[in-house]
Amino acid sequence: MPLPSFQEQFAALIAAPSVSCTQPNWDQSNAPVIELLAAWLGDLGFACETQQIAPGKFNLLASYGSGPGGLVLAGHSDTVPFDAALWQTDPLKLTEVGDRWVGLGSCDMKGFFALAIEAVRPLLDQPFKQPLLILATCDEESSMAGARALAEAGRPLGRAAVIGEPTGLKPIRLHKGVMMERIDILGQSGHSSDPALGRSALEAMQDVMGELRGLRAQWQREFNNPQFGVPQPTLNLGCIHGGDNPNRICGQCALEFDLRPLPGMDPEQLREAIRGKLQPLALKHQVRIDYGPLFPAVPPFEQSADAELVRLAERLTGHSAQAVAFGTEAPYLQQLGCETLVLGPGDIDCAHQPGEHLELARIEPTVALLRQLIQHYCLTRSEDVQRR
């Protein structure tokens, strides 16, 4: 059976549901996407290895050629949840609307795999002197479990890695980290007519929020990176729940907050600073305070400006490498020894939105760019590159 065309592959990826979500009623297996990619890449001569990360959740590592070095083209196989009623087209059907392809995952970022396959197809009759690895991960939109598992396994992947997240075809070499945390306070409820009958979790939480705001101000004085649109770390007090009635002393209160550290800030050190502020408050208010992450932190990411991959991408795209506020799997690939860059054709402004789309004008430049990267890293000997 002949390999499907580029557009057919793109459409098939959009049609394969692969939502990942922390809410079980939304969460789906990514197996349909992984099976499609493994079949297509296997037919092209790639050696395909599927790794089960959790029940129904898989990574795919497809390699062509062998040896050290080479290039990794990486992306996540999952999408965010969607509300079909807010879409003007079927989110699971690739639809051409004007000058764009519309569909869930067209931009963020299942469509990237079809672009990578299209880029490599005409090169497969040439000898690969270094390998090409196409990596598809699971659960990036929720827990990043796929990328975490790769990093924990410690298996080297390649000399350079490009993650095709939506960047408008501009290279990204820095992004902030993502920490989502929760603080629970257990006090003692009682009749509001006598404060001595209870210990207010809500009043204790007011002091907690004051300490968090103080830490935020301190960190924003100490850390600044002008390459980011928001050059300081941010801490957002996102949601709070506590108490049940005006005439009862509040016995329980919970706060969830979001912290975005800059490169150079260690999430564990930030957590230690927060814990150091909470312990005295627990004693002061005679309450129990529990603190922990909602999920493991995504570390901040920075690839050096003089890295070969950064210089090459800047030359090929005509854009200087930039910074973004959103998080990606880049730090995990970097932990495996890859020079890493985030670079893809979509626009982040339409990601996670009804009507997610990819501009048709981006397709040809993306294929050409990926083909040049493959030629540089896989069809040229590493010593030849070093002599240039």
UniProtKB/TrEMBL annotation:
Top-level EC class: hydrolase
Location, primary (coarse class): cytoplasm
GO molecular function: acetylornithine deacetylase activity; metal ion binding
Pfam (any one): M20_dimer
Compartments, as annotated in UniProt: Cytoplasm
Residue ranges annotated for the Peptidase M20 dimerisation domain, each copy included: 175-284
Protein origin, superkingdom: Bacteria
EC number of the protein: 3.5.1.16
InterPro entries linked to this entry: AcOrn-deacetyl, ArgE/DapE_CS, Bact_exopeptidase_dim_dom, Peptidase_M20, Peptidase_M20_dimer, Peptidase_M20A
GO CC term, one of those recorded: cytoplasm
A GO biological-process term: L-arginine biosynthetic process
Keywords of the record: Amino-acid biosynthesis, Arginine biosynthesis, Cobalt, Cytoplasm, Hydrolase, Metal-binding, Zinc
Cofactor(s) annotated in UniProt: Zn(2+)
NCBIfam families xrefs: AcOrn-deacetyl, PRK05111.1
HAMAP family recorded: ArgE (MF_01108)
Protein family per UniProt: Belongs to the peptidase M20A family. ArgE subfamily.
Protein name: Acetylornithine deacetylase
Record organism: Ectopseudomonas toyotomiensis
Lineage: Bacteria, Pseudomonadati, Pseudomonadota, Gammaproteobacteria, Pseudomonadales
